[in-house]
Design brief:
One of its GO terms (molecular function) is hypoxanthine phosphoribosyltransferase activity. Keywords: Cytoplasm, Glycosyltransferase, Magnesium, Metal-binding, Nucleotide-binding, Purine salvage, Transferase. By secondary structure, the protein is an alpha/beta fold. It contains 4 helices and 9 strands. The protein has a single domain, classed as 3-Layer(aba) Sandwich (Rossmann fold), CATH 3.40.50. The chain has helices at residues 17-34, 50-59, 110-120, 179-182, and strands at residues 10-15, 40-46, 64-72, 85-88, 98-106, 126-134, 147-151, 157-158, 174-177. The chain binds inosinic acid (IMP).
Length: 183
């Protein structure tokens, strides 16, 4: 889906598909250097990270494994509840594994800070984070993100996996949602 297909629902275009792919390539080059000689386990956080995971995994030139977790901290609104629940757990034993959490966006940071602690407690050799977007102004806890794509303003964004009430995930780029959509 293109921006033009939902132009009435969009307040501002932030990143095109090309800009996102260029950023993912840039992050991939760093990841390849840092994990050279290791087999990294990419842990995608459903459902928002599906697009980042698919593109990052294919861009990387080192061997990887993939696993998925689903956690919930949001309902259909636009504010983080701070309550994290595991809806789907990993199938992989993390003992001794180098884990790279792949996230779409860090808003309050509550979800990721909880998730990192949870995965570390399972005996992983290392746990790092790759997040395509971060909203620094919305941070409620400090999260150390080793691979960060773009810093964005504190607005509700959709596209490239990010939804509002399950809509707009298939938008190719990333845009600020027009307030009338959720008002
Ligand atoms: P946090 O716990 O506040 O950092 O929230 C993280 C999760 O909230 C992300 O993985 C997204 O699923 C969701 N989220 C946060 N901000 C946005 C947004 O602007 N658009 C869509 N989803 C968002």
């Amino acid at each position: 889906m293109e921006f033009s297909d939902v132009e009435n629902d969009i307040a501002e275009v932030l990143y095109t598909e090309q800009e996102i792919h260029a950023k993912i390539a840039e992050l991939s080059r760093r990841i390849e250097v840092d994990y050279a000689g290791e087999k990294v386990l990419l842990v995608g956080v459903l459902r928002g990270a599906v697009m980042v995971m698919a593109d990052l995994a294919r861009e990387l030139t080192i061997p990887i494994e993939m696993d998925w977790m689903a956690v919930s901290s949001y309902g259909s609104g636009t504010q983080s509840s701070g309550v994290v629940r595991i809806l789907k757990d990993l199938d992989t034993d993390l003992h001794g594994r180098h884990v790279l959490i792949v996230e779409d966006i860090i808003d309050s940071g509550l979800t990721l800070s909880w998730l990192r602690g949870n995965l570390e407690s399972r005996g992983a050799a290392s746990v790092e984070i790759c997040a395509l977007l971060r909203k620094p102004e919305a941070a409620k806890v400090v999260v150390d993100v080793k691979y960060e794509g773009f810093q964005i303003p504190n607005a509700f964004v959709v596209g490239y996996g990010l939804d509002f009430a399950e809509q707009y995930r298939n938008l190719r780029g990333i845009a600020v949602l027009a307030p009338h959509v959720y008002a």
